[in-house]
């Protein structure tokens, strides 16, 4: 478990530091970036939020609050509190048109900055839990690497970056979006900002 947790944080940090991000959309306080490498598409949503970074961290690290701003989350329950900084959740998401609803078993790892210039980190990846096998009513999907980095800008504002390395399980939610025919990423980002503020 210690290795999984470490690799969860390390994978998100590595993704955030990759060179070659292309900006695809800029709104007032939201910017959307994409990164392509072989068959892997990653995206980053950068949000300017008027709350201190530690407040954003405490709100974003509690995934039971996620349904309040992310309409893709239907249910989210804690399966196991591994430690203060690690929890395993079972998440179900709304079906896309003509598709089965999906579910995910995810490990959420939290890290506070050890130095002032470091971000707060909320890293997410799929894990296998024998106690929660796939069921016929859901299509079990996988999150390779996702999560938030929260950088402090001042005592009352921060930049929240959401990352997701896209797998085929998450792709239906994004395909329409990245081609510009849907605004779900933007809408979710704006809901997130509203929720945090």
From TrEMBL:
Coiled-coil spans are: none
Q: Which GO terms describe its molecular function?
A: lipid binding
Transmembrane residues, as ranges? Answer: none
The UniProt entry, under Pfam families, shows: START
Give the CC-aspect GO terms: cytoplasm
Limits of the START domain = 16-166
Q: Which PANTHER family match?
A: PHOSPHATIDYLCHOLINE TRANSFER PROTEIN, START DOMAIN-CONTAINING PROTEIN
Name-wise, this protein is ACO12 thioesterase
Q: Write the lineage as a comma-separated list.
A: Eukaryota, Metazoa, Chordata, Craniata, Vertebrata
């Amino acid at each position: 478990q210690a290795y999984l947790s470490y690799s969860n944080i390390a994978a998100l940090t590595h993704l955030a530091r990759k060179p070659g991000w292309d900006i695809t959309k800029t709104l007032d306080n939201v910017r959307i970036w994409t990164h392509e490498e072989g068959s892997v598409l990653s995206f980053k949503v950068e949000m300017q939020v008027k709350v201190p970074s530690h407040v954003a961290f405490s709100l974003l690290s509690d995934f039971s609050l996620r349904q309040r701003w992310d309409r893709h989350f239907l249910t989210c329950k804690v399966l196991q509190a591994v430690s203060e900084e690690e929890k395993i959740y079972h998440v179900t998401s709304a079906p896309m048109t003509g598709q089965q609803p999906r579910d995910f078993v995810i490990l959420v790892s939290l890290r506070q900055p050890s130095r002032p210039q470091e971000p707060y980190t909320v890293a997410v990846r799929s894990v296998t839990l024998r106690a929660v096998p796939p069921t016929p009513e859901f299509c079990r999907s996988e999150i390779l690497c996702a999560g938030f980095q929260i950088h402090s800008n001042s005592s009352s504002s921060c930049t929240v970056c959401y990352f997701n390395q896209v797998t085929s399980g998450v792709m239906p939610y994004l395909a329409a979006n990245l081609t510009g025919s849907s605004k779900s990423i933007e809408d979710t980002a704006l809901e997130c900002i509203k929720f945090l503020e």
